[in-house]
Design goal:
The structure is a homodimer of 349-residue chains.
Chain A: H1 2-7, H2 15-22, H3 26-34, H4 41-54, H5 60-67, E1 72-77, H6 85-101, E2 105-110, H7 114-123, E3 129-132, H8 141-147, E4 152-155, E5 166-169, H9 171-185, E6 189-193, H10 197-202, H11 205-221, E7 224-228, H12 234-247, E8 253-256, H13 259-271, E9 281-285, H14 288-293, E10 299-301, H15 305-320, E11 328-331
Parallel strand pairs in A: 1-2, 1-3, 3-4, 4-5, 5-11, 6-7, 6-8, 8-9, 9-10
Helix pairs in contact in A: 2-3, 2-4, 6-15, 9-11, 12-13
The structure holds a DNA duplex (30 and 30 nucleotides).
DNA sequence: ACCGCTTGTCGAAGCGCTTCGACTCTCCGT
DNA sequence: ACGGAGAGTCGAAGCGCTTCGACAAGCGGT
């Protein structure tokens, strides 16, 4: 067993081994692989056969050194409280999958190493580009990204987007669409059960934008709206919902933004003896998965994590090739009607 | 603006620039950085000053090429259904944080590229070692890892651990501890609300082990136990709980393994008019965060994602230095008593 | 005064790949 | 019959770093 140790040395074959085995020059193998120069079919086949036979895989470091491209992008994830974990996860997997399709790998960073981490990664040529999630309205990482001279794409939209590339769901319109749907059904008093207070305080874009959209749409439709932040956790959500309906008994429509509040909010309504959708209509902004798991299935505006991830990667790839891209890409919200919204009680048919 | 483009070329300084600036040889700079040879204090300071001044960061690719160490580890995450998203997320962040402490970065892979992905990464020297999450009892990736000749650590325990290094919570004992707690309170009939059926079918270790532990402990304490799989989603959980209590009305203790089932299960119990803990005691195996968010706060055995992640990284680092490490590390479960468990109704005080 | 250490530094040889001329053919138009 | 344009291939020069052997000093022991 131990004897084996020192002896075995399959020692990954190098491009030189492949070249020798195929009887061509090293550079020819390289061109077969990159397709950057014409190679005759015969040679190509011979080289490819040798590659397969020897089990050759190019050495990533050597390639990065010579070509000045690492074929790796960084994904900076948030670690903070109040984030929507499953959504983040969906983003991450979408990003990895898309990146692979573009022949790139993904390096995972967490924000807690701070700007220094970004700098290290970028300057060290470990990555070609950077994807940043959960960007706040006034994010300290933004100025750094501007100066960093590696292409980057933000998921989320900061206050000042000059010189940046951002992708996100259009939360403003998402909020508006929810209210519009409720207004269309005849509701005159609605409430927004928002994100935790800390999230607003932090200035996270999506929370503010949603609230703005809700407010604007309400004004436009002559609907009264009250908007309350909502902490996570069963008890807190219940308390918030109870308090809300005590102070505003006339509310018949509820927009729920915080996906982790969806379940407890429904439970709280049930506890108060308010039926959904008969007494109160509920529309959620959350991943579809949650909307269909709830009882009743929720009318919702899904957060298209998958598509945002894909878009972000695709934008980053385009920037890597020097292409110009739009500064801000806002995905249109789509409202799916399910079983949690209806005419308010007593409304005319 | 466009004019700027071609002109600016701060062109990351190289180690040669630093050497020139500090008036020493390139190798000296290298030794200052690596500490592999003695360097006089004066020289070291001069070099470090130049490094700071020039904003030098070593080129990762060049370093990997020359030193044959990428200082990157791969983290292979599951993408499948039935996984516990927040737990996975906790793992991931713990892994990234720990890895950074060891001066390594983390490359994110998803299982869906399959074994080919692992092979590519390992052979391409993109990573020095591999961390695999959510390993199944009979996992196709396991034989590959054995042959791959890059060190790896599994989070989760497959059936055959020969030649591997595994870390996990001791789910068997976790299950046992839950039953023991209930038995100690006087419960004679308990149930395990398990993972989704697909998870058992797939042969995911933790689900099977938990069930085994529950069963064994029940036998040991003369407690009757019934164990049912449980799908995700409000309605499914409700149906499962209702069905369970119909068929086994004498059950007074519930062990809930699937964290996403916790909320709905409590709601279902409330719907049936069973109070927790007065009529039914509930003990959960789930992250603490969930346990304290529930109402009432749950007696639980937390999954120490953070610590498992740390351990996994630390084991991998030790393997990278050639150190021998234990094949299997099972973390002892710790049960935290909160407000969801009590004597069964009618039990002697 | 000399040997043999240790300590600190340097130069050069790679690590495995990409890329840039340069070179050899072949084939076409005239 | 000849120049020129591709097409196809090769050799060599790096990319930025680590590491090995060599060497110059300084030191204590005899």
């Amino acid at each position: 067993m131990t004897v084996d140790r020192g002896r075995r040395r399959p020692a990954q074959p190098t491009i030189a081994d492949v070249a020798r085995h195929a009887g061509v020059a090293v550079s020819t193998v390289s061109y077969v692989l990159s397709g950057k120069r014409a190679i005759s079919a015969g040679t190509r086949d011979r080289v490819l056969a040798s590659i397969r036979l020897l089990g050759y895989h190019p050495h990533a470091g050597a390639r990065a050194l010579a070509s000045r491209r690492a074929n790796v992008i960084a994904l900076v994830l948030p670690l903070r409280s109040g984030i929507q974990v499953p959504v983040v996860m969906q983003f991450a997997t979408a990003v990895v999958t898309s990146a692979r399709r573009h022949d790139h790998d993904v390096l995972l960073l967490t924000s807690d190493e701070g700007p220094a981490g970004l700098r290290r990664i970028a300057a060290g040529a470990l990555v070609d580009g950077i994807l940043v999630m959960d960007v706040e309205l006034d994010d300290p990482r933004v100025p750094l990204l501007r100066e960093l001279d590696r292409p980057s794409v933000l998921i989320g939209v900061p206050a000042d987007t000059a010189g940046l590339t951002c992708v996100d769901l259009d939360f403003d319109r998402a909020g508006a669409v929810c209210v519009q749907h409720l207004a269309g059904l005849g509701h005159r008093r609605v409430a927004l059960l928002g994100a935790p207070a800390a999230v607003y305080r932090r200035g996270t874009g999506f929370a503010h934008r949603t609230r703005a959209g809700v407010t604007r749409a309400a004004a436009g439709h002559g609907v009264e709206v009250v908007s309350v932040p909502c902490e996570e956790g069963d008890a807190d959500v219940r308390r918030t919902v109870v308090g809300l309906l005590e102070r505003h008994p006339g509310v018949t429509g509820l927009v729920v933004q915080n996906e982790s509040a969806v379940g407890p909010a429904l439970a709280a309504l049930a506890g108060l003896g308010r039926r959904v959708p008969d007494d109160v209509s509920v529309v959620a902004i959350c991943p579809d998965q949650f909307a269909v798991q709830a009882t009743p299935m929720l009318t919702s505006v899904p957060v298209p994590a998958e598509e945002i991830g894909r878009q972000a990667v695709s934008l980053l790839m385009r920037k890597l090739t020097g292409e110009a891209v739009p500064a801000t890409t806002l995905l249109a919200p789509r409202l799916t009607v399910r079983h949690s919204t209806a005419d308010p009680a007593g409304a005319p048919r």
